[in-house]
Amino acid sequence: MGIALLFFATAVRNLLRSSEAREATYSSIAYGGWIVVVAGLGQMVVSSWAMINGAADTGDDAALHVLSYSGYFGFAGMGIGIATAFLAIGLGGIRNAVLPKWFAIATVVLAP
């Protein structure tokens, strides 16, 4: 899923960048937001993998408890990244008219 999101992020970045004059503001922010989402997904995968193949196999209840809490931090990164990416995509789409207007407005509304 993370690799697919990276390809999507690159496509959105190129679309937004095609209409930006000199400095790439919205496209870079949207791309950075998707990178944070992918990092959050990666952290969740590593935490789950450690819980399943590490702590659960050895029967270490304390490590399992700590790893289960650390898995929630991936959701924080995903939430921050998705909100950032949605705001940048929506505002860039409204300002530069490279996306359908309904899509740009929906991403701005869904961001918070």
The separation of the N and C termini measures 23 Å
What gyration radius follows from the Cα positions, in whole Å? 18 Å
What is the H-and-E element order?
Answer: HHHHH
Low-pLDDT segments, ≥5 res: none
Helix content: over 70%
User: What structural category do the secondary elements indicate?
Assistant: mainly alpha
Continuous helix count: 5
Tally of DSSP β-strands: 0
Give the overall silhouette: elongated
Mean pLDDT: 84
Largest sheet: none
Give the percentage of residues in beta strands.
under 5%
Features:
single chain; 112 residues; mainly alpha; 5 helices
Task: Give your account of this protein's structure.
By secondary structure, this protein is mostly helical. Helix content is 83%, strand content 0%. It is built from five helices and no strands. The radius of gyration is 18 Å and the shape is elongated. 22% of the residues are buried.
Quick description:
By secondary structure, the protein is an all-alpha fold. The protein has helices spanning 2-17, 26-58, 61-70, 73-96, 101-110. The longest helix is centred in the middle third of the chain and has 33 residues, at 26-58.
SSE order and pairing:
Blueprint (H helix, E strand, L loop, with lengths): L1 H16 L8 H33 L2 H10 L2 H24 L4 H10 L2
Helix pairs in contact: 1-2, 2-3, 2-4, 4-5
